[in-house]
């Protein structure tokens, strides 16, 4: 998939493993898993490639987050993203726009 980052801190976390903005500082284990999850999304050619990985807990959210998908970073955090397809009928390019890292229990 092609990955786009909606917020600068998300790209910074992925590329550098840290961010200058104190508001978005996470524990090293969360950042490490975030980078792994982004790499997983990059390596997937389509969203269905994520389904066999039960540890990702892939889900399409409902309510006020309708249309947003998520996968787990760890037990506490999830990675929210929007999937869109361009170039139909062929070739299909799946673009994944990373929206945010959120606390699953808030």
Short account of what is shown:
With 106 residues, the chain is of the alpha+beta class. It is built from two helices and five strands.
Strand proportion: 25-35%
Question: Which H/E pattern describes the elements?
Answer: EHHEEEE
The computed structural class is: alpha+beta
Strand order of the largest sheet: 1-5-4-3-2
- The biggest beta sheet, please? 5 strands, mixed
Name the poorly predicted regions. none
Report the strand count. Answer: 5
Radius of gyration: 14 Å
Tell me the overall shape.
globular
Please estimate the helix content: 10-25%
Mean pLDDT: 85
What's the tally of helices? 2
Distance between the termini: 29 Å
Structure description:
There is one protein chain. This protein has 106 residues and is of the alpha+beta class. The mean pLDDT is 85. It is built from two helices and five strands, in the order βααββββ.
């Amino acid at each position: 998939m092609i990955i786009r980052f909606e917020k600068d801190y998300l790209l910074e976390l992925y590329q550098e493993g840290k961010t200058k903005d104190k508001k978005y500082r996470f524990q090293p284990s969360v950042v490490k898993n975030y980078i792994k999850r982004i790499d997983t999304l990059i390596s997937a050619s389509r969203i269905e490639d994520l389904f066999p990985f039960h540890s990702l807990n892939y889900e399409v959210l409902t309510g006020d987050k309708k249309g947003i998908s998520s996968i787990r970073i760890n037990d506490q955090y999830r990675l929210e993203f929007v999937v869109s397809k361009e170039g139909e009928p062929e070739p299909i390019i799946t673009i994944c726009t990373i929206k945010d890292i959120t606390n699953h229990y808030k």
